[in-house]
Amino acid sequence: MTTLEDALKRYDGKATSILSEARATFGERRTFLSELVRLSGHDEPNVSDGATWLIKASLEDGVRLSPSQIEELIGRLDAISSWPAQLHICQSAEHLEVSAHQANACADWLTPLLISDRPFLRAWSMNALQHLAKQNPTLAERAMAALSAAENDSAASVRARARKWRR
């Protein structure tokens, strides 16, 4: 394994130990987060899934993306097409500080996910939209509509996520 991309190509979508190993090997590099952002929209789903999983894990551990990395990630959203990678981005939203323009771009990307066939995507895209609306009040109406829809969703997991926002 010579590059982070090579390491992510080994990811099978299940064994997160491969991702933890990649993080241990490459995580101290100055370019680690920038490489993950670049790979987030990779055309091989497992690479994209692995890169976004590592972004999410890093953010959850308190690492912050720079403004330019956030801008690049948002610029790649349309290329992030596998549902696991989309889910990881939705789950990362609460850790991102975005501009009004970036929040609107994210909200536009999230809109189709709000009606995904996958309940976790519906739940977490609604959650992401709520976080964006906290930063950008112009999204409040869209966020409230998504929350109302989630409260009436057929999936219990979506309704539960909506209840957490109502508290």
Give a written overview of the molecule.
The longest helix is centred in the last third of the chain and has 17 residues, at 119-135. The chain has two domains: 1-97; 99-167, no CATH class. The chain has helices spanning 4-9, 16-26, 32-39, 45-60, 67-75, 83-92, 100-110, 119-135, 140-151, 156-166. It is mainly alpha-helical. 66% of the residues lie in helices and 0% in strands. The chain is globular and about 50 Å long. Helix 3 (32-39) packs parallel to helix 5. The model has no long low-confidence stretch (mean pLDDT 95).
Key terms:
single chain, 167 residues, mainly alpha, 2 domains, 10 helices, 66% helix
**What is the string of SSEs from the N terminus onward?**
HHHHHHHHHH
Mean pLDDT: 95
Number of helical stretches of at least 4 residues:
10
N/C terminus separation: 47 Å
Based on helices, strands and strand pairing, what is the structural class?
A: mainly alpha
Helix content: 55-70%
Major sheet: size, sense and barrel closure?
none
Global Rg: 16 Å
3D shape: globular
Stretches where pLDDT falls below 50 for ≥5 residues?
Answer: none
Strand content: under 5%
Number of strands: 0
Count of domains: 2
Fold topology:
Layout (H helix, E strand, L loop, with lengths): L3 H6 L6 H11 L5 H8 L5 H16 L6 H9 L7 H10 L7 H11 L8 H17 L4 H12 L4 H11 L1
Helix pairs in contact: 2-4, 3-4, 3-5, 4-6, 6-8, 7-8, 8-9, 8-10, 9-10
